[in-house]
Specification:
This protein has about 190 residues and is an alpha+beta fold. The protein contains six helices and eleven strands.
Amino acid sequence: MKKLMTAIVAALSLNIAFAGELEGVKYDDKVKVGGVDLVANGAGVRSKFGKRYVAVLYLAATSNNASAILSSKGPKRVVLNLLKDGDGKTFAKAFAGGMEDNSTEAEMAALKDRVKTFKDIMISMGEASAGSKVMVEWIPEKGTVVTVNGAQKGKEIPGEDFFKAVLKIWLGEDPVQDDLKAALLGKS
């Protein structure tokens, strides 16, 4: 009986630790960024030439309003769990294109040097195998921080406007994928 109770408690604690599972990727329901508790807002799959990654968006409070999320203050996190091998050059090109698709010429001009820094960070990650985890976080005291498999890549990129441009890749008016936007907003 004691073993059964231990197994039940262990199973329940596993359910509490994860918000869900998508495409075999388990993700936490809560994380801490910059000393602030964040919750999983939504998760979805990026599909282009097959399933590429599972994305999870973490915010201080759940919201299904992209404009409200983009204008909200405080730490945020996007996690990309790779389902296929990829490389930094492809990420750099895709991210820069997504920012450009969702920003005005004036916004892109203001972001130019930081976009280059971001692209350099992505390129520096080199080959990333399926199962790798890429995190892009906004930490107000630091800036935008990129980590790959738990190791920070490059330096922090200043400016909340920059992180907002990154978020627009998935939440902007011309997102990388409409159903992924809906999923990150918790609508599917």
